[in-house]
């Protein structure tokens, strides 16, 4: 029997360094996008025009969004850009997405990081460190993950979509 073997490869998308700071008395979360390195090449010339989008999420819904400036022709951008949100940190997630700016067409997502109480691994540890050290900025590097859309989809819609593609 000639079966096919599915090989899963972990594509390197790059890394992002960001700082989190929470001041509980003021209900203020500050996210500083410091820099990124080794970003995946997205343009024909072998470089990218990266920028970072930050979405403040609650229960899968976007509450607020902010973005950095675009850095031209680089795979190792330096930002040091600060963004503040007035929130309580319960059930809040911060979705950080690195995108490649395109003048024509759609901007392509390079990768993302999801930070919050429901995240896992280094992202969850970073969030826990921030909560354990109020008023202190905590900086950490994170590996970018494959980007997915952050829309709430009902299980029924997922079932219908799966059934359609399996026909």
TrEMBL record:
One of its GO terms (biological process) is calcium ion-regulated exocytosis of neurotransmitter. It comes from the Eukaryota. One of its GO terms (molecular function) is SNARE binding. Keywords: Calcium, Cytoplasmic vesicle, Glycoprotein, Membrane, Metal-binding, Repeat, Synapse, Transmembrane, Transmembrane helix. Its cofactor is Ca(2+). Residues 12-142 form the C2 domain. SUPFAM superfamilies: C2 domain (Calcium/lipid-binding domain, CaLB). Binds 3 Ca(2+) ions per subunit. The ions are bound to the C2 domains. This is Synaptotagmin. It comes from Mastacembelus armatus (zig-zag eel). The lineage of its organism: Eukaryota, Metazoa, Chordata, Craniata, Vertebrata.
């Amino acid at each position: 029997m000639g079966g096919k073997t599915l090989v899963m490869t972990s594509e390197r998308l790059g890394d992002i360094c960001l700082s989190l700071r929470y001041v509980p008395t003021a209900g203020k979360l500050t996210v500083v996008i410091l820099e990124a390195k080794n970003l995946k090449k997205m343009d024909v010339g072998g470089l990218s025009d990266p920028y970072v989008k930050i979405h403040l999420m609650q229960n899968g819904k976007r509450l607020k969004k902010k973005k950095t400036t675009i850095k031209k022709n680089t795979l190792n951008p330096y930002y040091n850009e600060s963004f503040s949100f007035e929130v309580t940190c319960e059930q809040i997630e911060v979705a950080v997405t690195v995108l490649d700016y395109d003048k024509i067409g759609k901007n392509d997502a390079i990768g993302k990081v999801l930070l919050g109480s429901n995240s896992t691994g280094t992202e969850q540890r970073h969030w826990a460190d921030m909560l354990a050290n109020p008023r202190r900025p905590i900086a950490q590097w994170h590996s970018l993950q494959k980007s997915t859309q952050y829309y709430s989809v009902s299980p029924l819609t997922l079932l219908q979509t799966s059934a359609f593609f399996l026909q």
